[in-house]
Amino acid sequence: MAQIALLLFALFSSDADSSTPADGHHVETMTVPRFGLLTRLWAQEAIGAPEAHALLAKLAANKFEFYFPRIAIFTERVGLSEAFKNVRISEELGQELAEEAQGSIVDMNQHADDLHGDEFAEAFEDYHRISSGDGRTHIAAVANLLASDSPVGISKYGVIAAIANLEYEDVDEGVRIYLSQNTEAYVDIIHFSVFLQKPYEYQAIADLSEQYGKFLLIASAGNSFPDEVFGDNAISDISVISVGSCNPAGSPSHFSQCGRLNILAPSDDYIQTHTEDSTTLATFSGTSGASPLVSGAVADFLAILPSKQIAYPQLTKLLQATAIPVAVDPKIDGDVRVLNYYKLLRVALRIRHAIADDLDSAKIRTMIADPATYDFSAEAVEAKQLALKSVGKEHFQLLRQAFFLNPEDREIRNLLSSFYRSHGFKAQAIYYSNPVQALEELLTIDAHKYRQHLKSLYDAKIFADGKLTSEYKNFMLAAVKLNSSDILAHTLDRISSHPDDQLKSKLDLLAVIGINPAELAVDKPKLFKMFKRHQAKLLAR
């Protein structure tokens, strides 16, 4: 374990902006339920962030001319803290937030003397709450994943130009959505780490495109599996990249919604970011943790190739053609794959070199559509061969580079997987291994079984001929056997939401599945109480 920690330290310290050795958080490990031992920044590691940041640092040293893509973040009611000290924001937004801090002086009377001038940094010496709301931790976590210093933050060149609330106003024809006042007139990316549920919310997004010009929209897919992404809303005319979450082993997280998913990114319940201050790592979770990794990676792609030729269809192609195959159940999630940040940047460079300075060249679209643009197999083989002749840090780094250049190569994957497994990182070993073999191994992990079970549960028929189906009885029995309150809650909620109240009111939940109430009350009191609560609801109808 000490050996791999040192190697990871070297890996995450490969560019000038990485944390100093004294910080040390990027060489730590953690142990989490279901997945065991992980490297602490496993999520950033899984998309090739160390390799991508080293590449960007090398380009910067060679005086590469970067563009600074502008990003608007939509989230819950905004609250900012000292955690924003390392977040890259535009000068305009910084001045506006500093003015907002001045206006909130009454709410921050203990810090009043610290707030002077228009300098953004001065507004955040200590812990300054800029506006009230429960979203403080959420917005800080998202912003730091998106555009703070590495190794936590993904984008090295994206600039947050707006932090906008989703605000509603009652009008005669219903409810409409509008941007909060600090949104800039133009942005390259609009990032959503909130889940939208109502059709008018999606229509509002479409309207934004007309009001604020062309942008790329990237959004969290939602945390209510087995609901589908975007529910039943008809949004085929809205061009949005939907991002699901995967767990450390690479399969979709147990909560991540299915359906219209463009890409997965690692988050689950264990992604590390800054929430309350700028130095302490905290655990974040959900598709809100996955989507900023994608927005950050796309921002750096646009920093290299800032062309308006990159529209939704091209971005979809870029993400999918560079992505990492992982173990997913095709019956539930199709062929969705994981973001490959490093390869995405390599593709951007390949296109940029081919078009020289003609950023509006039609050749960009042609290259994006050409499979040859994504072929780095020869370079991957060379890196693999060099790795086999190397040891220690160099061996590890070369294997990782080969993996991200060609994640389809099974031999490379097996070599890297074996390295992680030999140091006790089972879940990460599964992630880097052959997806076919990984799927078999994933069946031994509770989170994957849970997802399969819950999907089957929602597809099952509840009543037939006026009675509870045997299939549904088996689902309840399985939940009791597993002693899973989560699965049982979903199972009983499905019965409660069934439209036929007459059938439900006649149902004795425990008797129909042959469970002795007294025994259940003693052996599994939590499940017994859940049965009793739902039974009371059914009888009250």
Task: Draw up the topology in text.
Elements: H1 2-12, E1 29-32, E2 36-39, H2 42-46, H3 49-61, E3 70-75, H4 91-103, H5 136-147, E4 159-171, E5 174-179, E6 189-192, H6 199-212, E7 216-220, E8 240-246, E9 263-266, E10 271-274, E11 281-284, H7 287-304, H8 312-322, H9 330-333, H10 341-355, H11 363-369, H12 377-388, H13 392-405, H14 410-422, H15 426-432, H16 435-442, H17 446-459, E12 463-464, E13 467-468, H18 470-482, H19 485-496, H20 501-505, H21 509-512, H22 517-523, H23 525-539
Parallel strand pairs: 3-4, 3-6, 6-7, 7-8, 8-9
Antiparallel strand pairs: 1-2, 4-5, 10-11, 12-13
Helix pairs in contact: 1-13, 3-10, 5-7, 7-10, 12-13, 13-14, 14-15, 17-19, 18-19, 19-23, 22-23
* Sheet with the most strands: spatial strand order: 5-4-3-6-7-8-9
Rg estimate, integer Å: 25 Å
Q: For the residues shown, what is the average pLDDT?
A: 79
**Which structural class best describes the helix and strand composition?**
alpha/beta
Strand content: 5-15%
Helix residue percentage: 40-55%
Major sheet summary line: 7 strands, mixed
Number of helices: 23
The N- and C-terminal alpha carbons lie at a distance of 58 Å
Number of strands: 13
Ranges where pLDDT stays below 50 over 5 or more residues in a row are 1-7, 12-26, 105-134, 169-184
Gross morphology is globular
